Amino acid sequence: MHYRKRRRDDSVSTAVKWAGMSRELTTLKLLLRDDASGKNLRSGPVLCEFIRIWKDARLTKSANDAKWRELFNMLIRGYVADNSASQNVRDWANTILCAAARVGCKPVIEILFKTASGDCTLAKALLEQTQMQNILVVTYPTKVDAARILIEKGKADPNFSPGGEWYSPLRTAIRAISVDMCCVLALCGVNKEDVIEGDTSTGLLKLKDALEDDDTSQIILKELIKYSKVDGVTSAS
């Protein structure tokens, strides 16, 4: 019995390594048909490893996007089907959502929330994570689509700031020089007062976080004040 279990564990480990080296997903799909191997593949740590492999694969080739989405769909829905009445879903959803947010893995985030529409346990777990934790702060700052889903589907609070060493989602986006992310957050009604201040020497508004590229600073500043009123000053546009 111990020998058979070790062989299954080895097959899962080999499949993960194979996916990382070759981006070949057919072997993984075959292993999912085996009950024991499938459960191992759907576990939090292994699924997080797939998300990491997806990130590396995206850097070089996007031709397998449909295959990755199919695989993620099988892994996520399979886990929920196996554990629909288990409290383990909460910790699993927390782990997977954070892992996907950190690299901006849009397919996993979309599938999680789509699956949650038919499973109240998963829905509750995801909403706890997006509404009570710093999910937008850890979200990869240039992955706009991922952040938009977390806000629109997960009801993530764009103003949630954990404090301490963490910046708010907007300050994180500014410091990452992500104009698109700043625009998304601005459209979602994020508070902008903590990132904009008046320049005492000129009387004009400026970003509190000075960027090396002044042109980009001005672009971000204009986008932010376009949608709000800051200290009684609005955009001329």
What spatial form do the alpha-carbon principal axes imply? elongated
* Number of continuous helical runs: 13
Number of strands: 2
Radius of gyration: 21 Å
> What is the element string, with H for helices and E for strands?
HHHHHHHHHHHHEEH
Strand numbers in spatial order across the main sheet: 1-2
Averaged pLDDT, please?
77
Structural class: mainly alpha
Protein name: Ankyrin
InterPro entries: Ankyrin_rpt-contain_sf
Structure description:
This is Ankyrin. It comes from Melanomma pulvis-pyrius CBS 109.77. InterPro entries: Ankyrin_rpt-contain_sf. With 237 residues, this protein is mainly alpha-helical. It folds into 2 domains: 2-157; 169-237, no CATH class. 64% of the residues lie in helices and 3% in strands. The chain is built from 13 helices and 2 strands; from the N terminus they run ααααααααααααββα. The chain has helices at residues 2-22, 26-31, 35-41, 44-60, 65-83, 88-103, 106-116, 120-132, 135-138, 144-152, 169-175, 179-187, 214-226; strands at 196-198, 205-207. β1 (196-198) and β2 (205-207) form a beta hairpin. α11 packs antiparallel against α12 (179-187). The chain is elongated and about 70 Å long. Residues 1-9 and 230-237 have low confidence and may be disordered.
Give me the secondary-structure topology.
Elements: H1 2-22, H2 26-31, H3 35-41, H4 44-60, H5 65-83, H6 88-103, H7 106-116, H8 120-132, H9 135-138, H10 144-152, H11 169-175, H12 179-187, E1 196-198, E2 205-207, H13 214-226
Antiparallel strand pairs: 1-2
Helix pairs in contact: 1-3, 4-6, 5-7, 6-7, 6-8, 7-8, 11-12, 12-13
